[in-house]
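Re: the request from the purification team.
They wanted to know what the chain is likely to look like in 3D before they choose a buffer screen. I agreed to run a prediction and write the result into the notebook, where they can find it.
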Amino acid sequence: MKEVSAPGMNWYMTEDLVQDGLEIKPSDKARAQRIKAGAIRSLFNMLTCMLDAEATLDVNFTACFKFTDTNEEVAMVIRKGICFLPITTPAKVDMEVVTTSKVWREVMANERTAVAAGLTGEISVTTGIKELGKFFAYFDTNV
């Protein structure tokens, strides 16, 4: 069967190049723009697909992220190699992070570090900023 549409042919030719080793990665600028434009919950939802399942087989950890400027709250649960976002925040959390969505987006876009934001008081972590780094080490964000 032959593909006759231009978009279809483009897809097949691109897929052929991918099979030969082509890597399609957005630029840092495009990545930062996407992070700043999306809903905050969708950023966390994206992270659930980036979990290193093998490294977290023995992990049972719940983190809660509170954004003071938008009054949003996002909980992330890592349990036995799976990460998910419960609809409501569990009563017991292991780590609570309080910041603004603007600061968090800048951290996610690699425009500033969580440590620097922690030193200025723009991010507070109940268990300490090192625990936040340990938590995010479970994710492969260099995709």
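For the purification team: The chain has six helices and five strands.
Please add any questions underneath this entry.
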